[in-house]
Amino acid sequence: MQLNLKSAKNAAPKDGEFTPIAPGRYDFVIEDAKQKTAQSGNEVLEVTLKVTGPQFINRKMWHSLSLLETAQGYLVKFLEAAGVGALTEQDNVSVDEIAAALVGRTINGYIDIKNSSTGVPRNKVDNFKAPDNPATPNIPMTAAPLPAAAKPKPKLFT
Length: 158
Prior knowledge:
Number of domains: 1
Strand order of the largest sheet: 3-2-1-4-5
Largest sheet: 5 strands, antiparallel
Order of helices and strands: HEEEHHEE
CATH class: Mainly Beta
CATH architecture: Beta Barrel
Shape: globular
Number of strands: 5
Strand content: 25-35%
Radius of gyration: 18 Å
């Protein structure tokens, strides 16, 4: 078999460029969680989410939860959706404890496509809830067709 790698190289996405995931609800496993300082200077909990499939399996998304007191209600809702709501019954919980409790948990979120400041379509995940069936990954329940500019290229091999 002969491969046309020169053509494939020219057609390959550049580093950091991915076709956006189709809008819809997806289940994720929380792969990592850590405290970071956002560009604004505020502390956030950055969560790495991995799609559990079957569509877009293993694609990663990132979501930041503000740790400001005025935004902690969103963190509480996220913890409840991830099945670690017992943490919300405690005071003086460290961010490290929260992060450790989240890793490996399953959560469901809504993926949407938004344009970046440079006009590039990017995914955003929000509107988290407990998965419908935590033991079994979901197929996106409300997946909409990709915009024309974001449609994936046909596969070379099937």
